[in-house]
Each structure stands twice: as C-alpha cells, then as structure tokens.
Specification:
Layout (H helix, E strand, L loop, with lengths): L1 E9 L3 H9 L4 H4 L5 E7 L2 E6 L4 E10 L4 E7 L6 E10 L5 E10 L4 H19 L4
Antiparallel strand pairs: 1-7, 2-3, 3-4, 4-5, 5-6, 6-7
Length: about 130
C-alpha cells in the first residue's frame, strides 16, 4: 500500500477552511477552483471533473463536523485498485490552521502521479483559502 500525506499551512481561521472542505458538492467553486472544473453530488457519491479531463467518482465515507474531518474513497479508478483519503482541519490559533490531506491507495506504482496531483491541488487550496508559503 502506498500513502501520500500533505500538511498544508493555511493563513485563515479553521472554521473558514472547514466550511469550504465540508461543502462536498461545491469543491469546484469554493475549495479548488480551476483544479476541479465541475462537481456533481448524488447522495453520498460525487463525480469530480479535473482540469485535465480526468473524471473521478468519489464515495463520501464520513463528514465529522466535530473533528473537522472529511473521508472519501475513489471508486472504479483505472489507476488504482484501492483508494481512501481524508482531509482534516487542524486549528493553530485564531487566524491560521493546517489542512492535513492523506491518501492511501494501491498499487504503489500510482504514488508519483497521485502525489503530483495532490501537490497541485494543495497549491490551489492555499491560494483559494488564503494560504501562505
């Protein structure tokens, strides 16, 4: 199993960041605009279209308001036989937080493309939510 974990500093209050993360049907406008160009939500399944044209079907596994944690799983991927990922918003004072994004997947050969995609998404998240370098 491969794993990619990003710890993303965000120069914005945790509640602001969580509000965007938890809005699972609007990630193309509120969370990662441009990186994701469309999101369709049907029950616990969302279909995400990326700027590259890649389309992913994601099962929303858990949305924990108290822990500010979202877990999801890509379903039916040609690249991966297994995928589970989560976002967790970690407050750091009143005006900053960290966004921890972790993905576990098979096969290990997918590690480089998954890491590249996540790093591109993290750059957009920081810019959209008020990030700092």
């Amino acid at each position: 199993m491969a794993s990619v974990k990003l710890d993303i500093p965000i120069a914005a209050p945790a509640a602001h960041v969580w509000d965007a993360v938890r809005d699972v049907g609007a990630i193309h406008t509120r969370f990662v605009p441009g990186f994701v160009t469309d999101t369709k939500l049907e029950g616990d399944m969302r279909t995400v279209t990326f700027e590259t044209g890649l389309v992913a079907r994601e099962l929303i596994v858990d949305l924990d308001e108290k822990a500010m944690r979202l877990a999801y799983s890509v379903q039916g991927s040609e690249l991966m036989s297994h995928h589970h990922a989560s976002f967790e918003v970690v407050p750091e004072g009143t005006e900053t937080c960290r966004l921890v994004w972790q993905a576990d997947f098979l096969p290990e050969a997918a590690a480089e493309p998954v890491r590249e995609m996540m790093e591109t998404g993290a750059t957009v998240m920081k810019r959209t939510l008020g990030g700092r370098d």
